[in-house]
Design a protein that fits this description.
about 150 residues; mainly alpha; three-stranded antiparallel β-sheet; rod-shaped
Length: about 150
């Protein structure tokens, strides 16, 4: 008995293509394929794969006729090049989204740091002005021009 979860992505890819090859995009559940493209030895294996595909909204199961047919999502994935290609594209999109989020956070941090530096500069200028005024009031500096 094979481990169905060992290569589930390959199973989805093989069976989406297999179902799509039918003129009606419908197949009997028992005719589903393993990763080598051969029918499963046990009908329960095919049924489990069908259920997993239905959970992903790739197929719709007709329990009365023991058939399954591609959903709109399943057809779209076939048109993209299959399940494995879809996974690859989805992974790249997630990676790009993560990069966009990191870049946005980095830009926000740069702006925040720039604002903090500006505020420190304003505080330093204020403190220097305050010291100059105190020194002037105490007579230590005779003219504000003396400091220049």
């Amino acid at each position: 008995m094979i481990d169905l979860f060992e290569n589930l992505d390959k199973l989805f890819d093989v069976n989406l293509e297999f179902i799509a090859q039918s003129s009606t995009s419908t197949r009997y559940i028992v005719n589903l394929r393993d990763t080598d493209g051969k029918e499963f030895e046990l009908p329960s294996q095919a049924k489990k794969v069908a259920q997993l595909m239905e959970e992903k909204n790739l197929v719709e199961i007709d329990t009365h006729n023991n058939t399954l047919s591609l959903t709109t999502t399943g057809l779209e994935i076939i048109n993209l090049g299959g399940w494995l290609k879809y996974i690859e594209i989805s992974k790249k999109e997630r990676e790009l989204e993560i990069k966009r989020i990191h870049n946005k956070e980095r830009k926000e941090n740069i702006k925040l740091n720039t604002d903090i530096v500006k505020n420190y500069i304003y505080i330093i200028i204020f403190i220097i002005s305050l010291i100059i005024n105190i020194l002037f009031d105490l007579g230590i500096i005779k003219s504000k021009i003396d400091i220049m």
